């Protein structure tokens, strides 16, 4: 009995020992992370001002609206700057999240786009309602975000660029009108008046983009050597000497008071969804329709062959211009091409038309006209099939070359200015090419790409980034600032921002 009692005592000790051991194995709570001592390094970010166009303003989904302005890359930078001495960052907010606006009560700016399934297929559609923003109601500044949608390089220094009172709207900028300090003010003047300690300057995109989105339907002033921007049309390519003159003035003015900053270059616009979404061969035809069309184009093809036989065009151009359809889903659209040999002096019917190839880029808005009737009373007048698409709907290889040349000239200048003034240059061009090719992997296993609507990098207008796309761009600026100034501003989390507004 005594031995049994001793055994029970031993078992009790073991049990206590095991319980104590189990308790000791419970992991302690994680230690709080060490606080990070953020520094701006050699940069003074206490008064940050951003200068640019729609990419700076936070424009997306075809409009400027409150949530988009909050998701602008400068506002993201300003949030990070507050970790190390950054001050307030005032934005010229629109009145609501619709994006539309009126002037004198008349609608002048459309609402933002959403992806609507009303027709059964997803389509970008303006949200319902009338935006409450009235352009003539000038809001009180100053504003740290001086991004003005639509602005070209020379517009930043144009007096009265925001004066929409008493002049046609096309001659003034409605976005700047509501935030300008005076009717004859300039964007750069309003920026300089704030005496910024730090700036970002991203301008030059629209000097190329407007020509591109118009399908190359504009003048190339690098060819004409026209250096008078007051004579430019809205869709013209800016002469590089004009750009260099104003850009140099901007940097000198911004740095005169000791401010430091960051420049950004111009992306290759032909890589964005606006030019990569609509295929060159979207026309489905049955056998009977294909035969009918080929018969209709027989005289055109025969006339070309006759002139080729006379040596008036080459065999290569004959092959390029010969139009042929087949039964199936992938027939190329018919387009006008001003770079073809003009044969209308010999035969007015031999207009400069051909079928598009994979080397042509159809603009995003071309989908609204392909397959529609040019004449509602003529069921055979199908645009892109019986009626060639006008120049504004297509970027031909020659027009793409003009865009590439203009972009290269602008970016070479921006790099040179960066070296001259010891300013870092964000290579947005190279980065967005990566987005368009391999995409950018995210920590959640997804990849941000340039695929329209689903890729996450671009908004529904096919031109401007989504909030997530702007976050990725903000990180490029932060990297450049940290590398140049020895600061340690943390990255913005792209996954905290949507790749597509759902409503």
Automatic annotation (TrEMBL):
InterPro entries: SGNH_hydro_sf
UniProt protein name: G-D-S-L family lipolytic protein
Organism field: Sediminicola luteus
Gene3D superfamilies the record matches: SGNH hydrolase
Keywords on record: Signal
GO molecular function per UniProt: hydrolase activity, acting on ester bonds
Signal sequence segment: 1-22
PROSITE patterns membership: PROKAR_LIPOPROTEIN (PS51257)
């Amino acid at each position: 009995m005594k031995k049994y009692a001793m055994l029970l005592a031993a078992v009790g000790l073991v049990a206590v020992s095991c319980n104590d051991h189990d308790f000791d194995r419970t992991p302690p709570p994680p230690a709080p992370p060490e606080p990070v001592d953020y520094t701006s390094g050699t940069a003074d970010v206490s008064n940050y001002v951003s200068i640019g166009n729609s990419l700076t303003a936070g424009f997306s989904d075809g409009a400027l609206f409150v949530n988009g302005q909050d998701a602008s890359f400068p506002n993201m930078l300003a949030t990070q700057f507050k970790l190390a001495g950054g001050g307030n960052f005032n934005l010229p907010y629109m009145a609501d999240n619709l994006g539309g606006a009126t002037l004198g009560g008349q609608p002048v700016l459309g609402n933002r786009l959403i992806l609507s399934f009303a027709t059964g297929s997803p389509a970008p559609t303006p949200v319902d309602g009338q935006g409450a923003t009235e352009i003539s109601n000038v809001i009180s500044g100053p504003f740290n975000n001086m991004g003005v949608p639509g602005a070209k390089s020379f517009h930043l220094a144009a007096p009265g660029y925001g004066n929409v009172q008493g002049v046609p709207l096309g001659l003034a900028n409605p976005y700047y009108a509501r935030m300008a300090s005076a009717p004859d003010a300039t964007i750069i003047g309003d920026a300089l008046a704030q005496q910024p300690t730090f700036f970002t300057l991203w301008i030059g995109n629209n000097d190329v983009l407007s020509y591109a989105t118009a399908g190359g339907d504009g003048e190339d002033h690098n060819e004409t050597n026209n250096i008078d921007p007051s004579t430019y049309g809205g869709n013209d390519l800016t002469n590089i000497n004009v750009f260099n003159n104003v850009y140099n003035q901007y940097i000198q003015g911004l740095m005169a008071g000791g401010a430091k900053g960051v420049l950004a270059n111009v992306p290759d616009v032909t890589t964005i969804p606006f030019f990569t979404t609509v295929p060159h061969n979207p026309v489905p035809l049955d056998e009977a329709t294909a035969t009918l069309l080929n018969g209709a184009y027989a005289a055109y093809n025969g006339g070309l062959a006759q002139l080729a036989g006379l040596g008036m065009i080459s065999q290569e151009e004959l092959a390029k211009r010969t139009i042929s359809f087949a039964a199936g889903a992938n027939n190329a659209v018919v387009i006008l091409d001003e770079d073809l040999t003009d044969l209308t002096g010999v035969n007015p019917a031999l207009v400069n038309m051909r079928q598009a190839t994979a080397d042509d880029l159809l603009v995003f808005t071309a989908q609204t006209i392909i397959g529609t009737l040019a004449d509602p009373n003529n069921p055979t007048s199908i645009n892109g099939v019986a009626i060639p698409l006008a120049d504004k709907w297509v970027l031909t290889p020659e027009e793409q070359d003009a865009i590439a040349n203009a972009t290269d000239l602008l970016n070479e200048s921006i790099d040179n200015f960066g070296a001259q003034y010891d300013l870092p240059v964000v290579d947005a061009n190279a980065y967005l090419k990566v987005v368009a090719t391999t995409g950018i992997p995210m920590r959640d296993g997804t990849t941000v790409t340039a695929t329209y609507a689903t890729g996450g990098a671009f908004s529904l207008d096919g031109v401007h980034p989504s909030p997530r796309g702007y976050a990725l761009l903000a990180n490029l600026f932060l990297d450049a600032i940290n590398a140049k100034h020895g600061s340690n501003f943390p990255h913005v989390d792209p996954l905290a921002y949507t790749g597509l507004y759902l409503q």
